[in-house]
Specification:
The structure holds three protein chains of three kinds.
Chain A lengths: L27 H28 L1 E4 L3 E4 L4 H42 L4 H9 L6 H11 L5 H8 L2 H8 L11 H25 L3 H9 L4 H12 L1 H17 L2 H6 L7 H12 L2 H26 L6
Antiparallel strand pairs in A: 1-2
Chain B lengths: L11 E10 L2 E11 L4 E5 L6 H9 L6 E6 L2 E2 L10 E4 L11 H11 L6 H10 L15 H13 L5 E5 L7 H18 L2 E6 L2 H7 L2 E6 L2 E6 L1 H6 L4 H6 L4 E11 L2 E6 L2 E6 L12 E6 L5 E4 L11 E12 L3 E7 L6 E6 L12 E6 L5 E4 L10 H4 L2
Parallel strand pairs in B: 3-8, 3-9, 6-7, 7-8
Antiparallel strand pairs in B: 1-2, 1-4, 4-5, 9-10, 11-12, 11-14, 12-13, 14-20, 15-19, 16-17, 16-19, 17-18
Chain C lengths: L1 H8 L1 H23 L18 H4 L7 H32 L5 H9 L6 H15 L5 H25 L3 H9 L4 H30 L2 H6 L6 H11 L4 H31 L1
Classes of the chains: A mainly alpha, B alpha+beta, C mainly alpha.
Chain lengths: 309, 385, 266
């Protein structure tokens, strides 16, 4: 499963003498690395260079593009599409927080309380992956339909009136509103939160809970002082695995939202594939990449978990 | 050194073998001969180079210099899979994806032996695991895994069996039992065993010959009794059991005896048991094992026979541990002398605060070079595991 | 009062099960609606029970063709990414070499990059090279983004492997090749299998990167995307449900087998 954090190597058995140095095959690692790294360089790194170059080109589709170091494209693109950027960050952040709030109990349940049901629940968490996520996202159209039971219930409880007031929903419906998009994002990336959380929770020695209890910690305190801090690696990699793809997503916004919920992914996609304004699309893509890498770096530094690679 | 065999065909001969990693010297060039059929132990604290030495014999580590001979054959450049040597690894390294039978059959199959069933069966019977053949390693207890590791190595009839801390992962009781078991197997198959351990009791119980290693060098090599009774360095004196050491100055040499001055008194030491240079006026550390010392209450000082070394002191502490009583005695020449007295007839006056005379036979005294650290090897033994 | 304390003790369990319900609800809808007979072009509202779509899953033009394209790409992408990724993982764990840090970053970055950025930039490359978009460009893209996940999965497994096992094999007369085939590979197999399974799932289900680099080739996710604009046939629910069932059965059977084997040998 996708986990950014890596299992720490199990306690090395006492091996006092330094590790053996290989004498033969001095070039073996390079041969092993070469094909895969070449693939990544040519099809991952090089495209980024091409994209950087495209972003400072001017011209038109008919006459072709030339590198003119036209950095104004960046400013133009950002000033035109900053609402979509802002929306992407807000929606992704909201979805990430929701994933953490919803995912933590389930991960905790699997790790400590599921007993013999553990494997079955794990299967149920992973199995939906095998139904195309587009089909599953479309199912939310049915679930949140205007005349469906959920909207009816929310309406009769007058909750929609409140969320309408907050701007989360509009016109007594959920579909085609920010709520629907965040709900879809949360749903889509929830397993990416649960799995790393589970991995780090599962490593916690159950006796630590007993020890904390023995040392006068109430269950809530035990969670705050022992369990949660120890699960931090899972929290960090889970939030990253949720936030990054959510910020770049355009599927949920397209299928469940409206033109008022367009995210930056939608803009990049349409600039590239429909409008075919390659410099603007490349510039937007670069801004998104830089923004996310910047945020991720700061986040990893601040959370003190730098052994993520 | 004791040699029990006459043939040199199966000796392990290390000549000037050494290993350095960059600036760090794991093993200083050393010469060592392990006679065929012997049970040889490399004893030392962690990081002393004993495991590296073993791995160089196995071929898992390439020496920086020197040669390894098995009998007359130079195997220094042979990879491990071409050496007639097998290893029982620390924590066993049993293949987790193979069952016990296949683990034991592994070496035979790699050498192209077709019908392994009978041999594996016999080997599993030898280590009393015939019933467990189809289990996976993780389903066995530590002691059973250990026996599988031995069987897996022995079935290949190696010229030499190397054991790397084979009992380190077992609890104390099981370890004692397995020590006897390994010794029995060794006697039965007659293969040369080279055993690496940090446990001095284990080495002394099992091995015919022990080489004590420290910081990449062999400090002393000999039969366990020899090492214990007549250590040549403070490291050996402290690492093997407990020793009392008193600083003294050589007074005179009289025939085979060296007379020493310690505090106000005189101590006698056989010249042959002194590893320090014998020059009048030179400094020597006088060593004596705690159980060799007898105690007499100061009132009975007259009853101590002549010709025995004696020191005076006051009992600082006494702990009764059943078979013996262990005293700590402060003496003018040395604080904290340890004395173990068998509980045969307990003298009621020997309580903390009592003035006593310590006395022992000069023949049990040993002399060490005073240039060494007096506490070398005292605290390394315990943490090594 | 007892009710309150009962709830309090099971708060985590209840919250967890609610989340599980949230995760599974769309699958229930997908399954239920695979038996629908919608009146319009879209299959979002329940009308009548019908097994028509189950009897004719390929009854929609292009659906099964796209499924076959997706399966082919997923198989080849899994194969490519697993081989290349396993090689990298072994090199990273087993050898010391220059530029480790750079190699690690190059492997980490694709996992930390939004798909839309990777898809768009790859398209820029293909456009600049004048490459014909289609099956091969999709395959190239899929191997690229699966690679890092394989490396991570295999690396974790190889790192936790006791190096003494390979030494033991060499000590027991296995040469380098035999050691690798008889010991290293079987022990690393679960990690490699996890990486391969993940690759397959990621490749089969990818839409965003594929959408950029597909040209006129249509994969299954792209077919679904297209039908979301034009009209959703019931058959896509049938395929979705069938894949879910196959996955669950596959996992349960494999769990049953390993569980029984464990019990028999215990």
């Amino acid at each position: 499963m996708p986990t950014l954090t890596e299992a720490p190597p199990p306690l090395a058995p006492a091996a006092p003498e330094p590790a053996p140095a290989r004498r033969r095959g001095r070039f073996t690692p390079y041969w092993l690395l070469l094909p895969g790294l070449l693939w990544l360089v040519v099809f991952f790194a090089l495209p980024l260079v091409y994209q950087a170059s495209t972003s400072v080109q001017t011209g038109s589709l008919e006459e072709g593009y030339k590198v003119t170091w036209h950095f104004a494209t960046y400013w133009d693109a950002f000033s035109q599409y900053w609402p979509q950027f802002l929306r992407s960050v807000l929606y992704a952040a909201a979805a990430t927080v929701l994933c953490l709030v919803l995912g933590y109990p389930l991960a905790y349940l699997i790790a400590f309380r599921a007993g013999r049901w553990r494997n079955l629940i794990m299967v149920l968490v992973i199995a939906p992956f095998f139904t195309s996520f587009l089909i599953r996202t479309l199912a939310w159209k049915t679930i949140l339909a205007d005349d469906g039971p959920i909207v009816h219930a929310l309406n009769s409880l007058h909750i929609l009136a409140l969320t309408d007031f907050l701007g989360w929903t509009a016109g007594d419906r959920v579909l085609a509103t920010p709520t629907a998009v965040v709900c879809g994002l949360t749903y889509n990336f929830l397993p990416f939160m649960i799995l790393p959380l589970y991995t780090s929770l599962e490593r916690i020695d159950g006796r630590l809970h007993e020890a904390a209890g023995d040392l006068y910690a109430r269950p809530a305190t035990t969670f705050r002082k022992v369990t949660f801090p120890l699960s931090m690696p899972g929290v960090v990699s889970g939030t990253l695995l949720t936030f990054i793809p959510a910020a770049g997503d355009y599927v949920n916004s397209e299928l469940l939202g409206s033109t008022d919920t367009r995210m930056i992914g939608n803009v990049i996609q349409s600039q590239f594939l429909t409008v075919m304004d390659y410099p603007t699309a490349a510039a937007l893509s670069f801004i998104l990449m830089a923004a996310i890498l910047g945020m991720v770096t700061v986040y990893i530094r601040r959370s003190g978990t730098e052994d993520l690679v | 050194m004791k040699t029990t065999t006459t043939a040199t065909g199966g000796d392990v001969r290390l000549t000037g073998i050494g290993k350095t990693y960059g600036a760090f010297t794991a093993v200083h060039p050393l010469d060592l001969t392990v006679p065929q059929g012997s049970f040889f132990a490399l004893l030392g604290a962690s990081g002393c180079g004993k495991t590296t030495t073993l791995r160089m014999i196995a071929g898992l580590e390439e020496p920086t210099g020197g040669t390894v001979h098995l009998g007359d054959r130079d195997v220094t450049r042979l990879p491990p899979y071409k050496r007639p040597v097998n290893t029982v690894f620390q924590s066993y390294a049993l293949f987790p994806h193979l069952d016990i039978f296949e683990n034991v059959a592994f070496g035979l199959r790699r050498r192209g032996v077709k019908s392994v069933k009978k041999q594996v069966g016999e080997m599993l019977d030898l280590v009393q695991l015939g019933e467990q053949a189809r289990k996976k390693p993780h389903q066995l207890s530590g002691g059973q895994q250990q026996r599988v590791a031995v069987a897996r190595a022995l079935i290949n009839h190696p010229q030499v069996l190397l054991l790397d801390e084979p009992l380190g992962a077992l609890d104390l009781k099981l370890r004692r039992q397995m020590q006897l078991e390994l010794k029995r197997i060794q006697t039965e198959v007659g293969i040369t065993f080279v055993h690496v351990t940090h446990d001095q009791e284990e080495a002394m119980t099992m091995a015919d010959t022990v080489a004590v290693m420290n910081a990449g060098r062999v400090e002393q090599l000999g039969a366990p009794t020899e090492l214990y009774e007549n250590p040549r360095t403070t490291f050996v004196a402290n690492f093997l059991g407990t020793s009392n050491m008193v600083e003294a100055e050589i007074d005179t040499v009289a025939g085979d005896d060296v007379v020493l001055r310690a505090g106000g008194g005189k101590l006698v030491l056989p010249a042959g048991r002194c590893s320090a240079p014998v020059v009048p006026g030179g400094k020597v550390l006088v060593g004596i094992r705690p159980e060799k010392i007898a105690l007499a209450h100061a009132d009975d000082a007259g009853t101590v026979p002549d010709g025995r070394n004696r020191l005076t002191g006051r009992i600082a502490d006494a702990s009764f541990i059943g078979v013996s009583t262990q005293y700590v005695i402060d003496s003018p020449v040395c604080d904290q002398l340890a004395v173990y007295v068998q509980n045969v007839e307990r003298d009621g006056r020997l309580v903390p605060g009592a003035e006593v005379v310590l006395h022992w036979s000069p023949a049990h005294t040993f002399g060490l070079d005073a240039a060494q650290a007096i506490d070398a090897g005292t605290d390394t033994g315990e943490e090594a595991a | 009062m007892p009710v309150v304390s009962w709830l309090k003790h099971r708060l985590v369990v209840i919250a967890g099960l609610l989340t599980l319900g949230y995760l599974l609800l769309p699958n229930v809808i997908v399954t239920v609606f695979s038996f629908n007979r919608p009146t319009g072009r879209f299959n979002y509202q329940w009308q009548h029970f019908s097994t028509a779509a189950w009897q004719d899953p390929c009854g929609v033009a292009g659906l099964c063709g796209s499924l076959s394209v997706s399966l082919q790409i997923a198989v080849w992408a899994t194969l490519g990414a697993t081989v290349l990724g396993t090689m990298i993982a072994f090199a990273l764990v087993r050898y010391r070499f220059r530029a480790r840090g750079a190699v690690n970053s190059l492997i980490f970055l694709p996992m930390a990059m939004p798909e839309v950025v990777m898809g768009a930039s790859l398209l820029t490359l293909f456009l600049n090279l004048g490459a014909q978009l289609g099956f091969w460009t999709i395959l190239i893209a899929h191997i690229m983004f699966c690679l890092s996940f394989v490396v991570t999965a295999v690396k974790a497994r190889v790192m936790s492997m006791d190096p003494r096992l390979e030494e033991a094999a060499r000590d027991l007369y296995a040469g380098p090749v035999q050691t690798f085939v008889r010991v290293t590979l079987p022990i690393a197999a679960p990690g490699i299998a996890a990486g391969a399974l993940l690759s397959f799932a990621l490749s089969f289900d990818d839409f965003i990167i594929t959408n950029f680099n597909a040209g006129s080739t249509v994969t299954f996710p792209m077919f679904v995307w297209g039908s979301a604009q034009r009209g959703t046939p019931v058959q896509i629910n049938v395929i979705g449900t069938a894949m879910f069932l196959v996955a669950v059965v596959f996992v349960l059977v494999s769990m049953l087998i390993t569980g029984r084997r464990g019990r028999r040998r215990a």
